[in-house]
């Protein structure tokens, strides 16, 4: 069982090494962020997804809340596009306009990190994390999702406790946005 003290140390590590100030998302225009791509760039699925998003970008950019943006992007989803790509796409569209998640969306690595803490859901209010571990109050929902993904092995006890996750391959969102369009 993970303790408040352990969570506190991991969150402080995340903040001190720049994770909280450089919230990162995989860019959906062929960039890599955490050292892997969510799909193969040669795949028709990728190109079809970009076309669908590009064809709908004006209406997507007019949406005022992240929750609504996520729901609309999710409705556009095609075969081969998963929850992580939907979330990342909504993030890439919303964040430049200061449309941020108000709850923590759990998918892929973030879901694994949350399950290690006893949370098994698709989306969760930040207060659930704070009620379990008050240290989560230091982070916003976007940062909590990022933290859970990066530290999932440490939260589950599967990682070598003497080695912290490598954060050097992370690119600040602002840099991705400059290059991504």
List the helices and strands and how they pair.
Blueprint: H1 4-16, H2 44-55, H3 57-61, H4 66-76, H5 83-94, E1 104-105, H6 108-116, E2 123-124, H7 126-132, H8 141-150, H9 152-156, H10 173-180
Antiparallel strand pairs: 1-2
Helix pairs in contact: 4-5, 6-8
Describe this structure in words.
With 181 residues, this protein is mostly helical. It contains ten helices and two strands, in the order αααααβαβαααα. The chain is elongated. Helices cover 51% and strands 2% of the residues. It has a two-stranded antiparallel sheet. The protein has one domain.
Mean pLDDT: 78
The Rg value, from CA coordinates, equals 16 Å
Q: How many separate domains make up the residues?
A: 1
Q: What is the chain-wise order of helices and strands?
A: HHHHHEHEHHHH
Residue fraction in strands: under 5%
Question: Runs with pLDDT <50, length 5+?
Answer: 22-42, 168-181
Shape: elongated
Tell me the span between the first and last alpha carbons.
44 Å
The description of the largest β-sheet is: 2 strands, antiparallel
The level of helicity is: 40-55%
Topology, number of strands: 2
User: Structural class of the helix and strand makeup?
Assistant: mainly alpha
What is the overall number of helices? 10
Assembly type: single chain
Brief overview:
The protein is built from 10 helices and 2 strands; from the N terminus they run H-H-H-H-H-E-H-E-H-H-H-H. The chain is mostly helical and 181 residues long.
List keywords for this structure.
181 residues; mainly alpha; two-stranded antiparallel sheet; 2 strands; 2% strand; disordered C terminus
């Amino acid at each position: 069982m993970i303790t408040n003290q352990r969570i506190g140390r991991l969150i402080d590590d995340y903040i001190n090494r720049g994770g909280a100030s450089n919230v990162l998302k995989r860019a959906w225009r062929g960039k890599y962020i955490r050292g892997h791509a969510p799909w193969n760039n040669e795949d028709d699925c990728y190109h079809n997804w970009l076309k669908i998003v590009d064809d709908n970008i004006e209406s997507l950019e007019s949406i005022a809340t992240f929750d609504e943006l996520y729901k609309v992007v999710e409705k556009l989803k095609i075969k081969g596009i998963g929850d992580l790509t939907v979330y990342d796409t909504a993030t890439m569209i919303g964040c430049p306009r200061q449309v941020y998640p108000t709850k923590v969306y759990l998918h892929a690595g973030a879901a694994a990190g949350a399950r290690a803490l006893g949370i098994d859901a698709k989306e969760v209010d930040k207060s659930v994390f704070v009620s379990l571990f008050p240290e989560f109050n230091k982070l916003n929902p976007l940062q909590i999702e990022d933290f859970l993904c990066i530290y999932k092995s440490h939260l589950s006890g599967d990682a070598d406790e003497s080695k912290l996750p490598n954060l050097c391959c992370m690119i600040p969102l602002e840099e991705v946005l400059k290059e991504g369009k």
